[in-house]
Amino acid sequence: MRPYRGRFFAGLVALFIGASFGLVFPLLAGALIDAAINGGRTSLPLLGSLTINQIALTLAVTISIQAAGSFNSALSFSHVGQSALADLRSATYGRLLALPMTFFGQRRVGELASRVSTDIAQIEGALIDSLPQACRQVVFLGGGLALIATTSLPLTAVMLGTLPLLIGAAVFFGRRLRRFSRETQDRLADSQTIVEETLQAIASVKSFANERFELERYSTANHATLAVALQAARWRAVFVAFFIAALFGGILIVLWYGALQLQAGALTGGELTRFVLYTTFVGGAMAQSAELFSQVQKTVGATQRVREILRESVEDNSAPANDPNATQPERLRGEVTFDRVSFCYPARPDAPVLHDVELVARPGERIALVGPSGAGKSTLTALLLRFYDPDAGALLIDGRDARSYPLHWLRNQMALVPQDVLLFGGSIRENIAYGRPGADDQAIEAAARQANAHDFIMSFPEGYATLVGDRGIKLSGGQRQRIAIARALLKNPAILILDEATSSLDSESERLVQDALDRLMEGRTTFVVAHRLATIRDVDHIAVIDGGRVVETGTHDELSARPDGLYRRLSSLQFGPR
Ligand code: ATP
C-alpha cells in the first residue's frame, strides 16, 4: 500500500473527522434531554447556552459532517485498497511467470490459479472493509473511553477491567482461527484444482463418461473444505459468543452503577443518557473489533500463501558478472555440446533421467533424437532450453557454458515447435506475432507464406484477423502446426527444437507441414524429437537414446546396417523387418 500512502492518510483524516463528529452525537443528545428537564435551555462547552431547537440543528449539522467524512474516507480507502490489490495481483502473476520450471513441476496448475484468485479475494475483504472499519473503531474506542472518563472514572475503570480478559481470548482464539483459515484455503485450492483440470480435459472426461466419477471426486474435496470451514466457524462462534457475553456483562455493570448514581443525584438524566450512548459506542466498537480481529486472522492465513509465492526465487536472467567471456555475440552460431551431462528432476532426486550424455551438434546440423518412450528425449530438450541445469557435466553453446548467457537472451535464440501447439484466444495475426511481439504485418505474412499457412488463412473471410480458440474458429492439427512454424520463422532462431507430432496428418497436410519445416530448419541447428522414423531419414545425425543414455549415433543408413542395434529394432517395428 506504500505507493498510495498520500491517499491513505487523506482517507484517515476524513475518517477521523467523520468519527469525531460521530462522538459529538451522544454529547448533544444528552444536552437535549438536560435542556428539556431544565426548562428549555442548557449550556454546552464551546457553544454556550442553547435552546432545544438550536441543539437539534447543531446535531443535524454534525450528522452531515459525519456523513461527508464517511463518504470521503470510504472512497479513499476503496481507492487505496483496490489499487494495492491490482498491484498485488500483477506482482503475484509476474512472479509466477518468472518462477523456474522446477516450481511448476512440483505444483498443480489449479492450486496456483486458486492462490492468485481466492487468496487475493480474501485479502481484498480485509483491505477494503476491515481496515477502514478498524480505523473507525479505534477512534470510537479511544474517543468514547476518553469522554466516559471525563464523566465518571469508576465507570471507566469498570469498562477497562473487562479488557485483559478480552485480549487474552482474542489471542487464544486467533491462533486457532488462523490455522483453520489456512487449512480452508488449502482445501479450497484442492477442489479448485479438480475443476480446472477436468475442464481443461473435458473431452477426455466425457469420452470416458466419467462425469459422475469427477463429480464424486470434487464432492469429496468439497466436503473436506466444508468440514474445515465448519470447524473454523465453530471456533469463531465460540469466540464471538464469549466476547459478547463479556461485553454485555461490562455494559450491565456500567448501567447498574449509573442507575445508582442517578438515584443518588450524582448524575443528571442527560449525563446518564450520554453515558449509556458512549457505553454502547465503546461496546459496539469492541464487538466489531472482535469480528475484525477474526477477519484479520483469516487474512493473515491467506497472505501467508501469497507471500510464499512472492518469496520464491525466480529464474536468474542475468549472466554471471565475473565471466571473462561475457561479451555477448549478436547471434549464436548454433553449436551445441552436451558434455557428459547427467540429470535428475528436482522432484525425483533419486531417479536419474540422463547419464553421461555426450552429444555434439555443429552449426546448422539436424540431429534427430529417437528412442523408446520415457528414454529422456524431451528432457534433453528441456535442458537445452535451460528449463533445468545439468547435475553433472555441462551444456556448451558455441563453446561456452550455457549458464554464462543471460537466460532470456539465450531462449530468444531458440524456438520450440511443440507437439501440442498452444494458440491464444486472439487473432491469427496475434498468434503468429507471438514469435516476435511487435512484428509488422509484412513480416507476419512473409512468415505465414513460408510456413505454407498463408493460403488457408486467406481462405477465411477475415483473413489474418480471424479469431482462433473459444470465440473463433478451431484450426485443424496441421493448420495449428503451420501457425507454430510461422511463429518460429518470425522469431528467426539459431537453434530449433521440433517435438514432432505423434499423430500422423493426412498425406497432403503432412507434405505442407514437412515442406514448411524444411524451410524452417534451413541454416539452423535443429533437434528433432522424432517418434516416426520415416520423417528423419535425411537428418545429419541420429542419436538413439535409451534409459537416459546415448546408445547409438550415426546416419540412418549407418544405424540401419548395425545388426543388433536398437535403431534397427525400432525401425523394423515401424516399417516391418527388411
Ligand atoms: P516420450 O517419447 O514418451 O515423450 P521422452 O523420451 O521424451 O519420452 P522424457 O519426457 O524425457 O522422455 O522423460 C524421461 C523420464 O523423466 C521419464 O521417466 C519421466 O517419467 C521423467 N520425467 C519427465 N518429466 C519429469 C518431471 N517434470 N519431473 C519428474 N520426472 C520427469
Which H/E pattern describes the elements?
Answer: HEEHHHHHHHHEEEHEEHEHHHHEHEEEHH
For the biggest β-sheet, the strand order reads 8-9-10-5-11-12
Bound compounds: adenosine-5'-triphosphate
Oligomeric nature of the chains: single chain
Mean pLDDT: 84
In CATH terms, the superfamily of the largest domain is ABC transporter type 1, transmembrane domain
- Per DSSP, the total helix count is 18
- Which topology of the largest domain does CATH recognise? ABC transporter transmembrane region fold
CATH class of the largest domain, named Mainly Alpha
Percent of sequence in beta strands: 5-15%
Number of domains: 3
Helix fraction?
Answer: 55-70%
**Structural class category:** alpha/beta
Would you report the number of β strands? 12
Q: What overall geometry do the principal axes of the alpha carbons give?
A: elongated
Gap between N and C termini, in Å?
A: 73 Å
Query: Which architecture of the largest domain would the CATH scheme give at its second level?
Result: Up-down Bundle
Can you describe this structure?
The protein has three domains: 2-311, ABC transporter transmembrane region fold, CATH 1.20.1560.10; 331-413 and 495-505 and 523-578, 3-Layer(aba) Sandwich (Rossmann fold), CATH 3.40.50; 422-492, P-loop containing nucleotide triphosphate hydrolases (Rossmann fold, 3-Layer(aba) Sandwich). The protein has 18 helices and twelve strands. The chain has helices spanning 5-37, 52-98, 101-106, 109-151, 153-161, 163-200, 202-207, 211-263, 269-311, 377-384, 407-412, 428-433, 441-450, 454-458, 477-491, 507-521, 556-561, 566-575; strands spanning 41-44, 48-51, 336-344, 352-361, 366-370, 392-397, 400-401, 414-417, 495-499, 525-529, 541-546, 549-554. It has a six-stranded mixed beta sheet, sandwiched between helices. A four-stranded antiparallel beta sheet has the order 4-3-6-7, covered by helices on one side. The longest helix has 53 residues, at 211-263. It is elongated. The mean pLDDT is 84. It binds adenosine-5'-triphosphate. Residues 105, 345, 347-348, 353, 371, 373-379 line the site of adenosine-5'-triphosphate.
